[in-house]
Design goal:
Layout: E1 16-23, H1 24-27, E2 37-40, E3 49-55, E4 63-68, E5 72-76, E6 84-85, E7 96-104, E8 110-117, E9 133-140, E10 152-157, E11 165-173, E12 184-191, E13 196-203, E14 214-215, E15 231-237, E16 243-249, E17 252-258, E18 269-273, E19 278-281, E20 284-288, E21 292-296, E22 301-308, E23 315-321, E24 332-333, E25 369-377, E26 385-388, E27 394-395, E28 406-410, E29 413-420, E30 449-456, H2 458-462
Length: 464
């Protein structure tokens, strides 16, 4: 997560902040994030994962966090000091909904984007035996408190043999002052039986209608939810209304741009080479290093972040471009633990001016427990300082942790949203027999919760 310092002069580089979950190996040495607060946002333990969060740039007191299963939303009207759950956000005409993202447009309207379906197809080969499914948006006119009763389809498939499966959408709002201001964009992966496509649709009427999707990849990816697929869309709009998009494909971060409000795109090309983007981590069921992209609107410098294991264990990296994506810097390692120490970082997130964010992990000697950490840079991403955001330990084993977390910031105040597995007591019937190792206790498989964290660098910076 990267912070904007709007009280600094425009000639100075943007401030960045990164959020990540840290295994205990080095976390005890980290300073506490300034004015850190943590808020549980799920009312109970359940299948809650893949959260996202956004700040209304027109009214920064309004903050919305979303998460699955199904679609849920929390909102704050006081810059994250208190939170409430919204009601009736999930669609009632589908059995399952998720893969959520959220954005505020230039009118201050909040949009939650999600997929909905009745039943998944074959595991990881999602187009095989797919049932009706689609991508939808729902709008809130009051900062996330209430949501319009009907969702709007972006792309919808009715049940019939051989239909594709629409997956992992991400919504982007154009809040610039360009001729395309107010546009909304959604990019996603379309799984077909033979390949995967990266598609994009746009709305020019406040999300009421959406264009026919255009394929923005240079060539389709593999048809399986694994390395080689076209997956993990990220997008950002520059101050001139130019739309930049990235995703992972063939061990590369692919890049394309649109200069006409999302009508046409340049030929996609690789800009950063990575190790395979899908990987296994300790006892976690699955993880990935899907990339994100952001821009400093003052300097027009683009930033991309991702995670991979080029160093043996997983690290988070950042690269930037000062010429609109033509050339990119060498990767900067974001996490500050020693190289090759066996720690693992992933689920990073990124935004610049006013925010940039990232989520990692570092492991303890047992490779199990973590805390959440915030990292920050004030020199345009050349180096980072890490802070402990939480001090309560949690595990990630034996549950589905999703594919991502989220971060947002405004005016030096940072908002993170992440998944945790709460501790549960071992039931009496599952305890090991007297004299036997506690490791023989039956594993306690249960659900997850979502938490929101806030930190504030504003007072510190204004006091300089």
């Amino acid at each position: 997560m990267f912070l904007s310092q709007q009280f600094r002069r425009c000639t100075e580089p943007a401030a960045f902040a990164l959020l990540f979950t840290a295994f205990l190996l080095h976390a005890q040495d980290l300073p506490r994030a300034p004015q850190a607060q943590i808020f549980p946002t799920t009312p109970e333990v359940g299948p809650f994962t893949e959260p996202a969060i956004a700040v209304n740039p027109g009214n920064p007191q309004q903050v919305v966090g979303v998460f699955q299963d199904n679609v849920h939303a929390s909102y704050s009207t006081d810059s994250g000091h208190t939170w409430k759950l919204a009601e009736n956000v999930d669609p009632k005409n589908y059995r399952i909904s998720g893969d959520v993202s959220v954005a505020f447009d230039n009118q201050g309207h909040a949009f939650v984007c999600y997929i909905a379906f009745d039943k998944l197809g074959t595991f990881n080969y999602w187009a095989h035996d797919a049932t009706r499914n689609g991508i939808f948006v729902r709008r809130s006119l009051d900062g996330g408190k209430t949501w319009e009763p009907e969702h709007v389809p972006v792309a919808e498939q009715t049940s019939s043999p051989g239909i594709p499966f629409e997956d992992k959408p991400y919504i982007v709002a154009d809040n610039s002052k360009s001729r395309y201001a107010g546009n909304l964009y959604i990019g996603w992966t379309r799984w077909r039986l033979t390949d995967s496509q990266m598609l994009l649709s746009r709305s020019v009427d406040d999300g009421k209608t959406w264009s026919q999707p255009v394929e923005i990849d240079a060539h389709p990816g593999l048809p399986r939810d694994d390395n080689g697929a076209a997956e993990g869309f990220g997008g950002v709009v520059g101050p001139d209304g130019r739309l930049y998009a990235i995703w992972s494909q063939d061990n590369e971060i692919m890049f394309t741009e649109s200069r006409d409000g999302g009508k046409t795109f340049s030929r996609a090309r690789p800009v950063v080479h990575t190790a395979p983007i899908m990987f296994a981590i300790q006892t976690l069921e699955r993880a990935n290093g899907f990339p994100q992209i952001a821009i400093d609107a003052r300097s027009k410098r683009l930033y991309v972040t991702w995670s991979d294991y080029r160093n043996g264990d997983l690290d988070v990296f950042l690269s930037s471009s000062g010429d609109g994506g033509k050339h990119w810097t060498e990767a900067v390692r974001v996490n500050n633990d020693p190289v090759h120490d066996g720690a693992e970082q992933f689920f990073q997130w990124l935004a610049v001016d006013p925010t940039d964010g990232s989520i990692d992990r570092r492991r303890d000697p047992a490779n199990r427990k973590q805390i959440v950490v915030l990292a920050r840079s004030t020199n345009a991403g050349r180096s980072f300082k890490n802070y402990a955001w939480t001090d309560e330990l949690f595990e990630a084993s034996d549950v589905f942790f999703g594919d991502y977390s989220g971060l947002a910031a405004y005016g030096g105040r940072v908002y993170g949203i992440w998944t945790e597995k709460p501790a549960v007591a071992i039931e009496e019937k599952d305890k090991p027999e007297p004299g036997k190792d506690a490791k023989e206790a039956k594993p306690q498989r249960h659900g997850t919760i979502v938490k929101i964290g806030t930190a504030d660098f504003g007072e510190r910076e204004r006091g300089k």
